[in-house]
Amino acid sequence: MDRLLRACTSIDYPEYEIIVVDDSTDPESLRRIKRWARHPRVRVIHRDRREGFKGGALNEGLRHLSPESRFVLFLDADFIPPPDILQRGLEHFEDDRVAAVQGYQDHVLNWDETPVTRVVRVSTISGYLVDFYARSLLDTLKQLTGGAMILRTEVIRRLGFSTNCLTEDWDLTLRLYLEGYEIVYDPRLRVLAECPSTLRDYIRQQMRWAEGHIRVARNYFKRVLTSPLMTLRQKMEFLLLSLFYLQSVLFLLGVGCTLIADPTPSGPLSTRLGLLLFLFDLLAPLSMGLTASWVAGGVRENLLGLVLFPLTFTATAPFLALASIRGLILEDGNLEEGWYRTEKTGHITVAPLVVRSLTSSNPLMVEGADLEDC
To answer: At 80, phi and psi to the nearest 5?
Structure first.
């Protein structure tokens, strides 16, 4: 909390305010929040009940925006934004069609804490430095990822966030495109973040994303494919993204068919085909992670994460398959069981000098007592 608010109050921009939506109950969090509430830029909003998942908290913050607000930057609790994030991000809004700008969530603060954090690091840079960047070059559907994103206030006030959804960012992404708006991805908006550090937290996070993603895609499927405001490329990307988490189901089916089929060289084609699919699912994340690590300049540092990346996919496939099936079958009202808050420890394992270099030139982010303690 202190780390985030020190960074937010040091953003290099003349006119902005910080709204903290807090639903804490522990005394230490409340004590720290009260201290920050005295800051001239900070307004603290307390919620007595956690309703509407993350979307409910975001909507609560929107209700307290200044009437003069034109743009809103959304940050999660474990983020460290750079000082120039607003100056860089707002450049894209000269085009009236742009409703949102998505930044690069660099999960680097504790990337070497555990084998799980190393895998998460490789996974996230694969998404942001390869997948998202390619979508921008090809001008296909760009996706909001829940944090490090800037939106036009008038647009998000009108649309709001879904409060009955496990993936409110994916839901908002599709609604923006259905309204004819554009989303810009800018990797220069590099916000430092933490990784979930245990396999249990990682699996629960991925299951929530899988279930919510599939359900949202199912709900908007016909509207997106028939929308006159979306391009053919955007619709093709939507089809690809809609099936993304279902690969775990197909992966398990392929492995099962391979195991029960005749393993001899003269066996049926399904044996060889199943084996090829199995190898593809192992090699695809490895090649993508290797490319992202090369772009990020850290192939050697990410070597363990690269090796564990395909193995982790194999280990989590049964859980993702279960969550994907839930997303296909369950209606929007049955969500409580699928919602998990992803635990973050607050630990920073990278050296303070590394954090300083990653956050440009703001010493307030690295000289505080919290970072020295870490």
So the answer is: -130, 100
Tokens for 120, please give them: 């998460």
Taken as a whole, the chain contains a residue count of 374
DSSP 281-294: HHHHHHHHHHHHHH
Phi and psi of 28, rounded to 5°? Answer: -65, -45
Which residues make beta-bridge pairs with 339? none
Rg (CA), the chain: 21
Residue 231 sits in a domain whose CATH number is 3.90.550.10
Cα 211 from Cα 323, distance rounded (Å):
5
Q: Please, what are the averages of pLDDT over each run of 10 residues along the chain (374 residues)?
A: 92 94 86 90 87 87 94 94 94 95 94 93 93 93 94 96 91 96 94 93 92 94 96 95 88 76 56 68 82 87 89 89 90 63 81 59 36 34
Which tokens in the block code for residue 128?
């942001």
Strands (E) across 52-141 are located at 71-74, 98-107
The letter for the amino acid at 263 is P
The pair of structure tokens assigned to 60 is 């609560």
Torsion-angle region of residue 13: left (phi > 0), alpha (psi -120 to 50) or beta?
beta
Q: Which two tokens stand for residue 115?
A: 């084998």
Partners of 152 in beta bridges: 71
- Per the structure, the count of domains in the chain is 1
The residue segments making up the domain with residue 292 are 2-373
Tokens of residue 317, six digits: 């496939």
Enumerate helices (H) and strands (E) in the chain, giving the number of each: 15, 6
- Is residue 349 within 8 A of residue 112, CB to CB? The reply is yes
Question: What one-letter code names the amino acid at 372?
Answer: E
Interatomic CA distance for residues 326 and 318, integer angstroms: 12
Q: Tokens 């390869």 identify what position?
A: 130
Q: 86: closest CA among 143, 154, 14, 157?
A: 14
Q: What backbone phi and psi angles, to 5 degrees, belong to 101? A: -125, 125
